[in-house]
Amino acid sequence: NDEFVQVASLANLPQGRCAAVAVADREILLCHTADGVFALDNLCTHGAARLCEGKLKGNRVLCPLHGAAFDVRDGSALSRPAVRGLASYRVKVTGDAIAIAVT
Ligand code: FES
């Protein structure tokens, strides 16, 4: 059984923006692109950097520390130095509410 938890509202996450939210002891990155809203782990797989402090460019988020790029749609690592992808979570948008499934 999937449990969706409301974590943010569209009003606070306009297209082109990303933000970190804390859910179930995890820190999750929400990204709103032209393709929708996506949720990923906020911690870079290469080092101790929080991706919410990086840049969102289209469907890619760039790590603020060494510039690795991840595809926000599935978490895959697109460029070195990161080689491992980010865990991604399912997102459900209902009206203004953004909910994610963390289990
Ligand atoms: Fe993210 Fe190095 S910590 S690329």
Give an overview of the whole structure:
By secondary structure, the chain is mainly β. The protein has a single domain (4-101), classed as Rieske Iron-sulfur Protein, CATH 2.102.10.10. The chain contains no helices and nine strands. The protein has strands spanning 4-9, 18-23, 26-33, 36-41, 55-57, 60-62, 69-71, 88-94, 97-101. The strands form two sheets. Strands 1-9-8-4-3-2 form a six-stranded antiparallel sheet, with no helix packed on it. Strands 5-6-7 form a three-stranded antiparallel sheet, with no helix packed on it. The chain starts with a strand and ends with a strand. The mean pLDDT is 96. The structure holds FE2/S2 (inorganic) cluster.
